[in-house]
Amino acid sequence: MRKNRKKTAVALTSPAYSHLLRCPICASSMQLRDGRSLVCSSKHSFDLSKHGYVHFLSRPMRTKYEKPLFEARKKVMDSGFFAPVLSHIAERITASWQARAMPLRLLDAGCGEGSHLSVLQQQLSRVSDAAVLASGLDISKDAIALAAKNNGEAFWCVADLAHSPFADRSFDFIVNILSPSNYAEFQRLLAGTGNVIKVFPGPDYLKELRSLLYSSTDSSHSMSLERNVYDNLATIARFSEYFEVLGSQRLHYSFLLQQPLIEPFIAMTPLSWGMKESLVQQIKQRHTLEVTVDLTVIIGGRKAAVY
Questions:
Q1: Is 23 annotated as a binding residue?
Q2: What pTM was computed for the model?
Q3: CA separation for the pair 112, 132 (Å, rounded)
Q4: What's the rounded Cα separation, in Å, for the pair 42 and 95?
Q5: What domains does the chain contain, in order, with CATH numbers?
Q6: Of the ranges 94-98, 179-183, 188-192, 207-211, which one carries the lowest mean pLDDT score?
Q7: Residue 26 is labelled as binding a ligand
Q8: Where are the alpha helices (DSSP H) in 128-218?
Q9: Angle at the Cα of 240 (from 115 to 195), degrees rounded to 5?
């Protein structure tokens, strides 16, 4: 896997990538040293792993999202579970970018194991003459390690979105898919004419699974389905505080999971956390499971300055 580190090192020596980065501790610029470390002017140093990603966190962050979850999610995403959503995002980016010759700088904020960013990178590269400079950021080392192993053509980093290792106005497009947001940081990172593309769940998202998990008569798990319906009004309002909404699209479709995908599907979603193991096993033993994908894609740009 050292070839991935070498690929990343070569990329970081190019002006296109080197100008994207800044030290997450002191905000000064960083340079690659000896092909192995990013070092800022204040001597803060961050090593490239053998898989090619960079770990920017000063201390590990505790999270319930671990390697088995990300491996399971990759299996499900590789089946095309989110294909309509990613195609829609790629089409919107292409429509916005088609007249430009400069490299397209794309960040997936909260990228997980990198499945979404890798698909977007491939789709955009096929339809654009411009180079696609793809970067993925996540707080989970397990997720980023898996992303870097599977895609050596993007820049991957373990970092805190509140203190990201990227310079001001570094990205033309920031995607944020079913992941926590930091809109103030997105404002800082977004180029002047750039777009933030956020994806969040609608009321029918995985409703079949929620019904199976929460319709139990067991009083210890008597949460009603209504209590687990996603409410997007606050999400939209919060997004609108920071960005001018340029468009939104609700994507609603069914996906049939065959038996080999049901177990990884259950493993990838936090919906099953805390449920009785016997109930989870019943669902895993089904021959098929049809689930609803209900997502809204909202696109925003910088608000016009008010004088």
A1: yes
A2: 0.92
A3: 19
A4: 41
A5: 61-301 (3.40.50.150)
A6: 94-98
A7: yes
A8: 141-150, 183-189, 207-214
A9: 45
